[in-house]
Each structure stands twice: as C-alpha cells, then as structure tokens.
Design goal:
The protein is an alpha+beta fold and 375 residues long. It has helices spanning 12-26, 37-43, 78-84, 100-116, 155-162, 183-195, 208-222, 234-244, 274-277, 289-296, 321-335, 351-359; strands spanning 4-8, 55-64, 67-77, 88-96, 121-124, 126-127, 133-134, 136-137, 166-177, 199-202, 253-257, 263-271, 304-312, 340-347, 363-374. It is built from 12 helices and 15 strands. The strands form 2 sheets. Strands 1, 2, 3, 4, 5, 8, 9, 10, 11, 12, 13, 14 and 15 form a 13-stranded mixed beta sheet that branches.
C-alpha cells in the first residue's frame, strides 16, 4: 500500500520539487510546452510578481513513497473576493499523476486553507489569477498550447470530478488560418472603416507606455462585468508590459480612437513563443536553452499568433469595431509571415464574441474548464 504525504513547499527541497513536478509528470509528452523555470520562479516570488501584494499563496507538494507526484497552490485573492462579494479560495498550478488519492490529498490541503480563511467555495485552477493562464483542458489533447495557455493530460478532469469538483465555466478557443477569412468579413470591415469616424492604427512602440496605459484603462472598463474579472493593478499591468514587450510584435496590436484621440477599443495579438519553448524540454535556459530560444525566435521563425484579448468600451459595442480588428489581424498577420492563430479565450456565456468568431470564419477547436466545489 502506498504512503501519501503532502508537505507545504515554502523553501528548500520541497519548493525545488514544486517547481520541477510539471517536467516530471508531463515532460515525456511531446505536445506539452515546458514553461521556462525562470518564469516559474518569478511568478511565485512576492518580491518580483506584483499580484502577491494583495494575495497569498500556499504551495503544496504530494509525495508517494517519498517521491514527488503532485503539486497544488491554495490562493487567497482578496481583491477578487472584494469585487465579487465572495468568500472564495482559488486553487492553481495543479499537476498530478493519475491517482485520485494523490489528487484528493492535495485538494484537502486547499480546503483546509479555505476553512482557515473562512471561505465557503473553492474554484480553479487559476495560475495564479484570471489574467494569467487558467482552466483544465478537456479536449484537443493532440494540440500544443499557445502562449499563456495551459496544457494537461486528459485524466486531470476525471481526478477533479472524482474529488467532488463540478464545472463552473467553460472557455473556448478558436482556430484561424489564411483560408479562414470569410468574404463577408472583408466587405464588412472595409465598409465599416470608411463609414466610421474612428481612427484605426497599430500600437506605437515609440510611445510604449503611453499606448499601454491607454489599453489598461479600456481593459479595466471593458472587462469589469465579465465572469470573475479582476482588473490589473497599475503595478501588475506595468509588470506584464515589461515582460511582453520582449516578445511583442507591435504591428499586430491594433487600436481604435475617437476624434479626440480617446482610445475606445483595442485588440492584442502576440507571437506564439511556445513554438520556441517547446524545444527547451527541461525549461532551463542554460547551458543549451538560451541558444535554442534565440534561434527559434529569430525573425520569421514563429508562424503563429494568439489573439489574446480584445476590449471595446460598452458604448461603442455593436458598431463593428471587432470586425475591423479581425480583418487587420488577418491582413497584417499574413504579411508578417504568421500562418495561423488562436483566438482565446472566450467565455461560453459571451454569445456576442462567440458569434463574431464564427462570423469571421474561425473554428472552435479547444475547450478549457474551470471547476468549483462548495464547502
């Protein structure tokens, strides 16, 4: 009979095991994209990752007969609970061997944290919040994840369900390529651009923080009513801008402004740097990872993008701004050598955006699921 022990991974060997477990569990799967270890370490460091200024993380590692076989984090997100008037504990960074007893032992630790924090609901996975990657992939396991999207073995869903966790929300991902664009989109976008008084332009990298802060302001307003949405703090937003500017292609970030230069909408696409990360199987930049990363991110090496977020102020919705953005992504993306893209994620309840994706010729091809359990 196996012995299972779950230890808190604050420092030392248990923390090293916590960071290493994804490579141990998923490393043999060629579809999985290994995260860079440096990025993992930064994300869990309160001194380097601004989210932890208003949140608390307790990390746990499960050991079976002395070997690390799973990990999980209990996350107390005070801003989420204040904004949504909830008493919810989030779980995140879930990795586990195919053993329900191991999964149950780890989730019980999260539930103990929730009781201590006087919370009555568990929801997740958030890694570590809704503005980073989230959810359990429940289909399309032959497809590698794109930038800032997770991947997991098929059995993760079963483990969570056997531990009493139920569906909270699904989010959809759409596939587009050079053959996807419908003639209707092209005609509509060109007509809308001529008729509107709005000005459409690409992101101005020479005025990076000016345009970035405009996007932050629209994002905070456009997403405030979305499921579980928590806007970036200014420190969080500046941190993610600092990281993403290293990989961004500013010619595929589009803005819409009114006659007074007020930003009313934006659409952000990023080169899919996972095409490079997948070549670094152990997640280490040194001694061999960095040369691989540089080679596989050279100009023209990345062939796909993720349309990661689109935001339009509520009073400007329904005017076809999204159609113009989609068209511009198509045309500029093809010009710059991107052959396919993923639009993700879109809430299953966002009827307008799901219809728009289909209208432009995209195909739904992946689903991620959030889970919850009442205590």
């Amino acid at each position: 009979m196996s012995s299972i022990e779950v230890k808190q991974a604050a420092i030392g060997k248990t923390y090293k095991d916590y960071i290493g477990i994804p490579y141990k569990i998923q490393g043999s799967n060629p579809v999985w994209v290994p995260p860079l270890r440096t990025m993992q370490l930064e994300m869990h460091d309160p001194k380097k990752y601004p989210f932890w200024a208003q949140a608390e993380e307790r990390r746990f590692v499960a050991y079976q007969n002395g070997e690390p076989v799973g990990r999980i984090s209990a996350i107390r997100d005070d801003r989420h609970n204040q904004l949504h008037q909830e008493t919810t504990t989030h779980f995140g960074f879930f990795e586990c061997i195919d053993d329900v007893d191991v999964a149950k032992a780890m989730l019980e630790k999260v539930e103990e944290c929730a009781h201590e924090w006087q919370h009555n609901l568990i929801r997740g996975p958030f890694n570590p919040n809704i503005n980073e990657d989230m959810g359990i992939q429940i289909d399309a396991f032959d497809k590698s994840p794109v930038i800032m999207m997770p991947y997991n073995p098929p059995y993760y869903r079963t483990l969570l369900e056997k531990c009493g966790y139920e569906k909270a929300m699904d989010v959809f991902c759409y596939y587009v390529d050079q053959e996807s664009m419908s003639p209707k989109l092209k005609r509509g976008a060109e007509s809308l651009r001529k008729r509107t008084k709005l000005k459409y332009r690409a992101f101005d990298k020479k005025n990076l923080m000016r345009d970035a802060l405009k996007i932050w302001d629209v994002h905070c307003q456009a997403w405030e009513k979305n499921w579980c949405a928590v806007p970036f703090t200014e420190d969080e937003f500046k941190h993610i801008v600092k990281n993403l500017k290293q990989i961004a292609d500013f010619d595929i970030i589009f803005l819409a402004e009114d006659e007074n230069d007020k930003l009313v909408g934006f659409s952000l696409a990023l080169p899919n740097i996972h095409e490079a990360f997948i070549k670094i199987r152990d997640g280490r930049l040194f001694p061999f990872g960095l040369p691989k990363l540089l080679w596989h991110t050279r100009k023209g090496a990345i062939s796909s993008v993720r349309i990661i977020i689109m935001g339009v102020l509520e009073e400007y919705r329904g005017r076809g701004i999204d159609a113009v953005f989609y068209y511009d992504h198509f045309m500029e993306g093809i010009k710059r050598g991107y052959y396919w893209g993923e639009m993700s994620w879109i809430l299953e309840t966002n009827t307008m955006m799901n219809r728009a994706a289909v209208m432009m010729g995209a195909k739904k091809y992946k689903t991620y699921r959030m889970f919850a359990k009442a205590l």
